[in-house]
Write a structure and sequence with these properties.
single chain, 349 residues, alpha/beta, 6-stranded mixed β-sheet, hydrolase, Metallo-depent_PP-like, Calcineurin-like_PHP, zinc
């Protein structure tokens, strides 16, 4: 049984192009940083659920510091950094250290000289309720951009999602992959009951974190999904971007494309999210975390699905973050340590 620690495509994904492939063939417009699954805890090293992957709970903070130092020293600093969720580990809740650990990581992020956009993953909800997160420093919705005269592009307060423009004609959309979830919600609420019903309909196991025997292994408790309301909002934003010839980058803790991810790590209703994205021309890239081993695939519609390798399972002598350089015709991921370089060309019209 695999729990978001896929090894099936490592051989292919470890390929790193020669440095000259990353040479600047056209004018670079801007860049942004990506980092995923820091999962800090003040604990000795441990292992994943199967006991075959080492987790470096304390060292993850040093990796974060290294990434921030790198971004701060870049000749042309990134416009922003995307933190793809699971910022502290669920073990913190057990030791009543959630707030203290979050404070340590947020103090580290304060060293970063550019804005950081925080995504929420399952480990955020192991530590905090949704209400707590909404009122915490992990809520970066204040960095959103508004589209004048288009009220349909304003997200609801019922989910944590927003969009922003780091550079003209490029729109980034941050999605809430736990909008439908049994995590972080009051168990007496109708939403919890509704989500539990969906989960149990697809997962008859006593242990709801187990994908054993499931036809759709993504229906486990540590995953979640996108509500119809959130997908309608996404559709409205993408409609605006199509009309205005913008290029769109989407960010989510959970991946949505099976070819880029172990199936047990996908969002519950990943097909619904893909259907919305594929009905538009503007989306060029979808960044996610969650898998720890990373992954990549270009879908039939030319959208590049990139899962960033997790900091938590990165040995002290390595690293796990990247800088994405954006050009008029492509994006180039300059990976560090476990994160490979990638060239992602935009589809031709």
């Amino acid at each position: 049984m695999r729990f978001c620690d896929s090894e099936s495509y490592l051989e292919v994904m470890d390929y790193k192009p020669e440095p000259e492939l990353l040479s600047e063939s056209s004018e670079r417009l801007f860049s942004f940083g990506v980092i995923a699954d820091i999962q800090y805890a003040d604990l000795e090293d441990g292992y994943n659920f199967q006991g075959n992957r080492r987790r470096y709970y304390r060292h993850s903070l040093l990796h974060l510091q290294g990434a921030i130092e790198h971004w701060n020293q870049e000749r042309s600093p990134p416009r922003c950094v995307l933190q793809l969720g699971d910022i502290i580990d669920g073990y913190n809740a057990q030791y009543k250290a959630s707030e203290k650990s979050l404070e340590r990581v947020m103090n580290t992020f304060q060293m970063l000289r550019v804005p950081v956009h925080h995504t929420w993953g399952n480990h955020e909800f192991y530590n905090f309720s949704r209400d707590y997160l909404t009122n915490s420093k992990l809520n970066t919705k204040f960095l959103e951009d508004q589209i004048a005269h288009h009220p349909e592009t304003v997200p609801s307060e019922d989910y944590y999602a927003y969009h922003f423009v780091p550079f003209p004609k490029f729109r980034f959309i941050l999605l809430d992959a736990y909008d439908m979830s049994v995590l972080g919600v009051d168990q007496s609420s109708p939403k919890y009951q509704q989500c539990l019903k969906i989960l149990r309909e697809h997962n008859p196991n006593t242990e709801l974190n187990s994908p054993q025997g499931l036809r759709e292994p993504q229906f486990v408790q540590f995953n979640g999904g996108f509500s119809p309301e959130q997908l309608n909002w996404l559709n409205a934003v993408l409609t605006f971007s199509d009309r205005n010839q913008e290029k769109v980058v989407i960010v989510s803790h959970l991946p949505i494309y099976p070819e880029a991810s172990d199936s047990v790590c996908l969002a519950w209703n990943y097909r619904d999210a893909l259907a919305v994205i594929w009905s538009h021309k503007c989306v060029v890239c979808f960044f996610a975390g969650h898998t720890h081993d990373g992954g990549y695939s270009e879908d039939p519609y030319g959208v590049h699905h990139v899962n960033i390798e997790g900091v938590i399972e990165t040995a002290p002598d390595s690293q796990a973050f990247g800088t994405v350089h954006v050009y008029p015709d492509k994006m180039m991921l300059e990976g560090r340590g476990r994160v490979p370089h990638r060239i992602m060309n935009y589809r031709k019209e």
